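Milestone 3.1: sequence recovery, worked example.
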């Protein structure tokens, strides 16, 4: 059986990789995960063999370069026959280490990349020997092989008539693991749902309501339980956050981060938000334009797995 190294940054890239390993039939009992330690990754991978390494955030090029010696040592110790990665910049030293050791490598670019490869995808294309896969139907590049998107597994259905009453007493807000604060999102939710019993996971955003600081991180199982019990879910437009909501049967209201507000390194969240909104899997709105109507519309819908992808 193949010894596999599974490499992804914490957050959406790791969530995507977990889905793809199932779909690709990778034997996790023979796999070693490489990611950074957070309450979420510790919870998700508690029964797996994991090598914890320091986080590399978007744009931290020097930190990624300095991680190459450690990545090479990991490769020599594990001796994988296959490396599979969904990115992001975090994965670049491990992709290089695989290339240096002539190890078979698969790079699956993020479902957020609609029109072309991410920066990490371009790096993998130019500097590694990886087989390249895209989850988008919109690329016109023969070097990239299309594979089903992680979002193809889901469909929505009405929980009640569109004009029916929808109570929103409990909410969950998750702003992901990005390195940039997202104050606009918190202010928007507090404006629209001031009386709801709300579970917060605000990441690096340092914010207090009524003199109480909001929770920055929750274990994955605790966050999932809160989402499952909520009437509505509000999130940034990150793949990991959205996937968790869909897996728990919720249509999330997503608030895309914007570069010009200093909330993200680029505007790729608006692209994935538009695609998923067109599919009916999310309600997408800028935080400054969020209203109770968006919340109620999402609360009237449920999500289930398509039969072809299993329950």
């Amino acid at each position: 059986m193949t010894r596999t190294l599974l490499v992804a940054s914490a957050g959406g890239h790791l969530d995507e990789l977990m889905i793809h390993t199932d779909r690709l039939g990778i034997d996790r009992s023979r796999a070693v995960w490489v990611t950074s330690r957070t309450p979420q990754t510790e919870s998700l991978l508690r029964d797996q063999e994991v090598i914890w390494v320091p986080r590399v955030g978007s744009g931290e090029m020097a930190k990624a370069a300095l991680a190459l010696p450690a990545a090479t040592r990991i490769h020599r110790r594990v001796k994988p026959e296959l490396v599979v990665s969904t990115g992001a910049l975090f994965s670049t030293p491990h992709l290089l280490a695989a290339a240096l050791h002539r190890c078979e490598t698969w790079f699956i670019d993020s479902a957020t990349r609609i029109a072309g490869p991410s920066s990490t995808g371009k790096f993998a294309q130019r500097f590694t020997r990886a087989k390249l896969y895209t989850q988008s139907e919109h690329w016109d590049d023969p070097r990239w092989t299309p594979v089903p998107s992680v979002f193809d597994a889901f469909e929505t259905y009405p929980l009640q008539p569109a004009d029916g009453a929808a109570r929103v007493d409990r909410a969950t807000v998750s702003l992901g693991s990005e390195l940039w604060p997202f104050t606009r999102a918190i202010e928007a939710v507090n404006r629209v749902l001031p009386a709801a019993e709300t579970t917060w996971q605000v990441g690096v955003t340092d914010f207090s309501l009524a003199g109480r600081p909001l929770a920055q991180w929750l274990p994955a199982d605790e966050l999932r339980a809160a989402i499952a019990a909520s009437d509505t879910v509000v999130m940034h437009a990150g793949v990991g956050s959205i996937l968790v909501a869909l897996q728990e049967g919720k249509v999330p209201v997503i608030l895309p981060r914007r570069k010009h507000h200093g909330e993200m390194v680029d505007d790729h969240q608006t692209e994935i938000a538009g695609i998923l909104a067109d599919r009916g899997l999310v309600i997408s709105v800028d935080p400054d334009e969020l209203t109770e109507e968006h919340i109620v519309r999402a609360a009237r819908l449920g999500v289930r797995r398509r039969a072809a992808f299993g329950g």
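The mean pLDDT is 92. Residues 12-24 form the longest helix (13 residues).
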